[in-house]
Every structure is written in C-alpha cells, then in structure tokens.
Amino acid sequence: MDLRAIGESFIAWLQGLGIPDGWVLFINWLVGSVLILGLALTLALALIWLERKLAGRIQDRLGPNRVGPYGLIQPIADALKLLTKEDITPAEADRITYNLAPIIAVFHVLMLFAVIPFADQVVGANINVGVLYLMAFGALGTMAMLMAGWASRNKYALLGGFRVVAQLLSYEIPIALVMMIPVLLVGSLNLNDIASGQGGLFGLGWFVWIMPAAFLLYFIAALAEGERAPFDLLEAESEIVAGYNIEYSAMKFAWFYLAFFLNTWILSAIATTLFLGGWQGPFVDKIPALGVVYFFAKTFFMFFLFAWVRATFPRLRIDQMMAFCWKVLVPMGLALLLGAAIIVKMGAEMSWPGYMTNVLLLVMNIVVLLVMLSLLGRYTRTLSETKNKRLFAPELPRL
Amino acid sequence: MLTQQYGLIGVFAVIAFIFPIVTLAFTWLIRPKRPNPLKNSTYECGIETVGDAWVQFRAQYYLFALIFVVFDLEAIFLFPFAVAFNKVGWFALFEAIIFVLMLFVGLIYAWKKNALEWQ
Predict the structure, then answer these.
(1) Which residues of B fall within a CB distance of 8 Å from A329?
(2) How far is CA A62 from CA A71, A75, A301, B71, in A?
(3) Among candidates A78, A85, A81, which has minimal Cα distance to A49?
(4) Is A252's CB within 8 Å of B35's CB?
(5) CB-based contact A114:B8 (threshold 8 Å)
(6) Interface size, chain A vs chain B, as Cβ–Cβ contacts under 8 Å
(7) Residue B111, H or E segment
(8) CA angle, B13 as apex, B12 and B17 as ends, to 5°?
C-alpha cells in the first residue's frame, strides 16, 4: 500500500468530477492543511497523557488514572475545562501584544509540521529549503515567549522573557551548527533527501552511527530549545513561579501548553529525520507505508528520551547553563562542522571508498568528544578542589 | 512543482493563524466574564505590587543577543556552503575554514573580555 497513491487517486477523482485544475490544486492544499492540523492536535493530546504517565512512573507515582481507562481521557477533560474557564487579562497588560503571543506560539509550532517527512514523499510541503525553514519558524517561538513576557507587565514574566532571550537564542547557535552537518553530508536542505540519504546497510547508514557526537550535541541543545529540564530556567517554578506565561489563564494558557508539547515532538521528529534515518527501516522499499510506522516509532523513542531526562534531572543555574552553551557546545559544534567538511572533501578528492570516509568521520567524532570530556573533567576537578578550600566566599574558577 | 509545494505552506499558514483566533473567539462566547479590580491586578504571589514591571534591565542580555546575531549570520552564510559543498573545490573549503576561524577568534575575544561570564 502506498500512501502517495491515495493522494494521487484523490486528485484523479476530483478531476473526474470536472472541477478545473486550479481548484483541484486548491482543494488538495486545503485537505492537506486540515490533515496536518488534525494530526498535530491529536498528537498534542496523546503527548500530554504520555508525558504525564511517563513522569509519574519514573518518579514512582501513578500519573493520571481517574478519567477513562489508564487516565486516557484526562487530556480531553483538561481541554474542556480550559475551554470554559474565565480568561483574565491583567489591567496593566499591553493588550494587543498580550493576546497575540499565544496565537503566534501555536502558529509557529503548527507551521513546523508542514515540512516533516512522515514517509518517503509523504510530506505536507516537500520544499528545497527544509532545514532553513525549520530554523526560521523555530525562532518565531522565541519571539512569542518574549512577547508574552513583556506584555504581561509582571516582574516574574519579564524575568522569564529575559531568560528566553538568553537561553533560546544562545542554544540556537549549536543547534544550527549541528543541523548543518547532515546538510553537508547529503548536499541538500530538503528533509526528504536527507532522510533518503541515510539508507542501506541495515540502518548503519544513519548519521547517528557516523556522527554520534553531533547527535549528542543536538540532543543537549534540543533539551534547551524545548525548555525542558535540566534547562527549564525560563519557567523555573521555585524562582519565577511560571515564567513568561504567569499571567495567562484559560485557553491562552492552553495554547502555550500545547505549543510546548508539540515543540518537543517536533524536535524529536527533526532528530529522527536528520540523524536516525527518518522513515528508513527494513522492507520500507517494498511496502512504503511501513515508513510511517518507523518514523513514528523513532520519534516517540526520542520523545521518551526527552521525557525521561525531564523527569530525572534537577535544574541548572543560569550562569552554568550559559557557560555550557558558549564555552562547550559552540566550540564543539564548530570543530565537528570543520572536521566533517575537511574529511568529506578529502574523501571526495582522493576518491576513497565510502566506508573509509565514514570510519574517519566516526574517529573524528570520538576524538572531539573525548577532548571535550577531558577538558570538562579537568574543570570539575579544579571546581571541587576550590570548593573544599572555601569558607564563605564562593569564588568559583572560570571555565 | 515548486509552486505547488509552497502553495500548501501558504494555505496552511492562513489556517494555522486563524485556527487559534477562532478558538479564542469561541471560548469568549461560552466562558464566564466577571472581572473585578482585584482579579485583574498583577499577580505577585498575593502581595501588592510595588512599582512598574517595565524597568531597566541588565546589559548582560544585550551582550548575549549581540554575540548571537554574529553567530546566527555565520550560520546563514554557512548553509549555502554546506549545500554546494560537493560542487565546490578546495578553495571554497579553505575560505569557509578561514571564515569560521575568524568567528572563533571573535568567540575567544568575547571569552577573554568576560562577555560570556554571567555576573
């Protein structure tokens, strides 16, 4: 069964009804948009239940278990409650910006769904600048949070907004550098091409095996980009109550909540597409519909990792977090990018066999990772030595 | 072919922008509306607010934003390089390396100037 064929037969059926070609195209776009929207909203409900249940299990609780079997209806009950709640706009707030912020938050995360390839050629819009599109619309989310923090006219919200600027903008650099590596290896910004460039060799062609350090870097930076613990400083409950969305209630809060979960899922989907081979898997060239199964399995595995880390780790301090980004992740990303560029070029110019280039890339990744870890280890040792000496002045050595 | 793909993005952008607005308008119809001055006051854990929230803030945030702009521009310039990577020769590779190293020197400069310290 081919999912592509269903779409084509739908178009053929519309043309058979005698509708002009322009309208057929427009109806096609409309149906595609509604499908993507429906998928995103259903996913959000499933993800909220999944994350709460996982966090419950990891922290030795039960999680939601009252509404429906295993608490499955809980997200729907929450949505209904939020729909009918009174919506309070603070008298001091900047009304236009305040009301626009949740709309933009949902808009940006929905737009990201349009270019994710769920199976070979099964994608909303198969555009040739996919990775750049993801980065551009991903940055719009930062804008929405900053707007929310500023417009609420609340000190906690404003602090949360400032932390958004510091954290999300900083971690966008390593994530951009590391997203460039698959682009460089495949030579295309098209997400479908990148996923199909990782086929063959029973899954050994996935970039996670060739560039493990890059994948690790992406994962860490994605934790920060998805505002997840240990990087959830911009909504640190113990410091600034709820951060940028403190003054939001009812449906406006629900939109921020939905954007948060969908953003994590999208980050998992990008990791799957760029590093875990997208829809690639056994027998996918014979039965293309299997690609959807593989894609969702990998993405939910990545989402499980995100939820696992969130439920396990405590929060970092803001100076530690910024130092980790600029002094560890950015140099590491630059080193990986340059190393990959040099090795791939040498391989192409001296016409090495393909596996030779891949082995060299793997060696380069391990070397970069080990150097970084040894530098970090040395820093932690000096840190603990100073800590033993100090009495009152917490004079920490600089990284 | 390409217009077809971008057409979907255009239609979807309109739907994705209108959908949250429609939902908010719908909740406006069905939700209770009983505002009072106490409810609409700024939330600060129950204590009365002192002063305005829009105050001067630390220059540190500007510094990070400035460094971000520099590196983000670098990323934008490196994306075309990465796409055309297989078609260009050694010369372009060396140019890209020099470009990245210059920014790396900039990062080290910011580091030594303590712009990366969070005081």
Answers:
(1) none
(2) 10, 16, 21, 45
(3) A78
(4) no
(5) yes
(6) 209
(7) helix B90-112
(8) 115
pLDDT digits (tens, 9 = 90+) for A263-290: 999 999 999 988 888 788 777 777 777 8
* Structural tokens at position A332: 């590491």
Question: What pLDDT, on a 0 to 100 scale, did the predictor assign at position B33?
Answer: 81
Q: What is the pLDDT of residues B64-88, one digit of tens each?
A: 888 888 888 888 888 888 888 877 7
Model confidence pLDDT, tens digit, residues A122-157? 777 778 888 888 888 888 888 888 888 888 888 888
| Closest CA of chain A from B84, distance in Å | 6
The token pair at A17 is 């009804």
**pLDDT at residue B17 is higher than 80:** yes
pTM of the model: 0.88
Residues B33, A247: C-beta atoms closer than 8 Å: no
My answer on whether omega of the bond before A397 falls inside 30° of 0, hence cis, is no
- b (16+ CB within 10 A) / e for A370-384: eebeeeeeeeeeeee
Q: Is B38 exposed, middle or buried (0-12, 13-18, 19+ CB in 10 A)?
A: exposed
Tokens 């934008």, residue located:
B76
Q: At A336, which amino acid appears?
A: L
pLDDT at residue A372, rounded to an integer: 87
Q: Enumerate residues 50 to 109 of chain B having a beta carbon within 8 A of any beta carbon in chain A.
A: 52-55, 57, 60-61, 64-65, 67-68, 71-72, 75, 78-79, 82-87, 90, 93, 96-97, 100, 103-104, 107
Contacts of A278 (CB under 8 A, 6+ apart): A117, A191, A194, A195, A196, A198, A272, A291, A295
DSSP per-residue string spanning A241-291: TTGGGTT--HHHHHHHHHHHHHHHHHHHHHHHHHTS-TT--TTTTT-TTHH
Contact call for residues A106 and A170 (beta carbons, < 8 A) = no
Among residues A64, A157, A46, A148, the alpha carbon closest in space to that of A104 is found at: A148
